[in-house]
Design a protein that fits this description.
Chain A is mainly alpha-helical and 239 residues long. Chain A is built from 9 helices and no strands. Chain B has 9 helices and 10 strands. Chain B is 38% helix and 25% strand. Classes of the chains: A mainly alpha (239), B alpha/beta (241).
């Protein structure tokens, strides 16, 4: 018992505490969290916007001849194209294109990653929101309109709150996917949790401890996110 | 109060309404019957422009409302509708269901709306349900609250689209009772229904619609049911009575 405890202490000492090696993981983890958080904000906002544009275009069937109708039609077409392209290409390729082509003059790697993952996630979130919006009972929408509520008032008071409730489970999955997907940030040299583990290995020449440690950290965060979304679901269903 | 002139409505190639004319005066209770697919619900839904007429005019309080120059939301505020599927807002509790429209449309402030909602809930016999959500209520309760929701806007006209068709038989009575009460209080009503007892008791006028046309119209419900003139009306009544 005493021996095995000593083994564990030595193991931790040699792999993580010596030379402050744990800092590679800790700093990487901090980057991973930041990228995830800001990419989430961007993806969420843009995703809702894209979803509303597409649903509004389908609901209102605006004419191409009026300025506002033209704008909605055009935005909707662009949204469709955007979603098709983002969902049809690998995130890694998108990240590399962002870094090497589109944002080649931007030297802040963190921002490149946030923009890439945010813009990527927006396409998926748009589809999730759209299915959530379309699952709202058409009867309730008609009831709201029959009381005199405008399209926008109906959207904000009846449709959107229900859409959020409808798509919360898929939405939780998307946030978890986004969080894990940031692990490809190393492709552009950003030292996130995964890349931090890689650097640590090149120092200690032992692959297992850093990789398992990083896997464990990802897992714990995912479990926490799952709990948060379960709690949210419980809070906003009235069954 | 409301007038329909030469109303046509097509869904793609399907002609649902083929030239309907109808005038409803204040305080009148018009009951509309007919086989399913005859266009009676479509006619009702054209009145508040939930369906856009293909041609013809809807005139509400002396204004043509389907030519696009009026704020349709403003018009609808004065024209309540009760649906077959109740359509209470499932994300809101009963009080919020009632107060949402009058507050958001600036008819009443929050306190006034809540006071009025509580008063209406008392009137329909459901004051204890004020904080419940729609899925916690029976069909009959939901429909009575849907009627109260429409009344919150003090409409000049109430449209009922088969209000009891989705209810369990034992709950039909409570909804019809409330509708009868409203009728007696002088509400102008257009009711699409299969409840012939209600039609007999409450209607000032009965319309029989088939294949997109008003086939028969009568100001005397008892006479209409006892001595229908048109052959198609006779066939229909013989099947359902």
């Amino acid at each position: 018992m005493v021996v095995s405890l000593q083994v564990i202490v030595d193991f931790i000492q040699n792999n993580f505490l010596k030379d402050d090696n744990w800092r590679y993981l800790a700093n990487g983890f901090s980057i991973t969290l930041q990228v995830t958080f800001f990419a989430f904000l961007l993806g969420f906002t843009l995703g809702i916007f894209l979803a509303i544009i597409r649903v509004a275009c389908k609901d209102l069937k605006p004419s191409w001849k009026t300025p506002s109708g033209l704008l909605i039609n055009l935005l909707s077409k662009i949204s469709n194209l955007y979603i098709t392209i983002i969902r049809g290409t690998p995130t890694t390729v998108q990240l590399l294109i962002m870094f090497n082509v589109i944002l080649v003059n931007l030297h802040n790697l963190k921002i490149v990653a946030i923009l890439t993952f945010g813009l990527n996630s927006a396409a998926y979130m748009a589809e999730i929101f759209r299915s959530g919006i379309q699952a709202v009972s058409p009867g309730e929408i008609e009831a709201a309109r029959s009381l005199g509520l405008s399209y926008m008032q109906t959207m904000s008071r009846i449709v959107m709150p229900q859409a959020f409730r409808n798509c919360l489970p898929s939405f939780g999955n998307e946030v978890i996917t986004l969080f894990k997907e940031t692990s490809i940030s190393g492709f552009i040299g950003l030292v996130d949790l995964t890349r931090g583990a890689g650097i640590l290995i090149s120092k200690t020449f032992r692959a297992a401890p850093p990789y398992f440690a990083s896997a464990l950290i990802y897992l714990i965060v995912v479990l926490i996110l799952e709990q948060i979304f379960h709690a949210l679901e419980r809070r906003i269903t009235h069954d | 109060m409301i007038e329909i002139r030469n109303l046509y409505k097509n869904f793609d190639d399907l002609e649902v309404l083929r030239g309907v004319n109808l005038k409803i005066k204040p305080s009148e209770k018009v009951v509309i019957i007919g086989p399913s697919g005859s266009g009676k619900s479509t006619m009702l839904r054209c009145m508040n422009l939930l369906e856009k007429p293909t041609s013809g005019e809807i005139i509400f309080k002396d204004q043509v409302i389907n030519h696009g120059h009026l704020d349709i939301n403003k018009v609808r505020e004065n024209m309540g509708m009760v649906f077959q599927q109740f359509n209470l807002f499932s994300n809101l509790n009963v009080l919020e269901n009632l107060t949402l429209a009058p507050i958001i449309r600036h008819r009443l402030n929050k306190d006034e709306a809540e006071a009025k909602a509580l008063e209406l809930l008392k009137r329909i016999g459901l004051p204890e349900k004020v904080n419940n959500y729609p899925n916690q209520l029976s069909g009959g309760q939901q429909q009575r609250i849907a009627i109260a929701r429409a009344l919150m806007m003090d409409p000049d006209l109430l449209l009922f689209d088969e209000p009891t068709s989705a209810l369990d038989p034992e709950m039909v009575g409570e909804v019809l009772e409330l509708m009868t009460e409203l009728a007696e209080a002088g509400m102008t009503m257009a009711v699409v229904t299969h409840e012939m007892g209600f039609a007999r008791q409450v209607a000032n006028r009965i319309l029989f619609i088939d294949e997109g046309l008003i086939v028969e119209e009568s100001n005397d419900p008892n006479d209409f049911f006892n001595n229908p003139r048109e052959e198609r009306t006779q066939q229909f009544l013989s099947k359902i009575l």
